[in-house]
Amino acid sequence: QVQVVESGGGLVQPGGSLRLSCAASGSIFRRYLMGWHRQVPGKQRELVAAITSGGSTNYADSVKGRFTISRDNAKNTVYLQMNSLKPEDTAVYYCQSKLGSLDYWGQGTQVTVSS
After folding, report:
1. Is residue 8 within 8 Å of 18, Cβ to Cβ?
2. Confidence band of 5 (pLDDT split at 50, 70, 90)
3. pLDDT for 1 beyond 90
4. CA distance 32 to 98
5. Res 2 pLDDT > 90
6. Is residue 88 helix, strand or coil?
7. CB atoms within 10 A of CB 79
8. Cross-strand pairs, 24
9. Quick count: other Cβ atoms within 10 Å of Cβ 29?
10. What digits encode the pLDDT tens for the residues 18-48?
11. How far apart are CA 14 and CA 69, in angstroms?
């Protein structure tokens, strides 16, 4: 069983920045596909950004150029740097750790963008 724990959420003004962190347990973290997703009430969860074991990344069109996903395999941690935040980025952000049929999720961290 892999434990996935997000941190770094909070309240930020429009145009501001936040960095989310996701720590995952296990000795094979480097092999996992890691992703950040977000969800607002009444809407489906959507993929924000993902990074493969080899470091390839992909982003939702709505966050390209503003968000950056990265990973530190030595720390079993993946990050989501969020810049130029907008009110529409407000959501609960979830971290996913996936390897084949193994699929683990964190409990989520709230990000609120508001003045």
Report:
1. yes
2. very high
3. no
4. 5
5. no
6. helix
7. 19
8. 4
9. 22
10. 999 999 998 889 999 999 999 999 999 999 9
11. 20
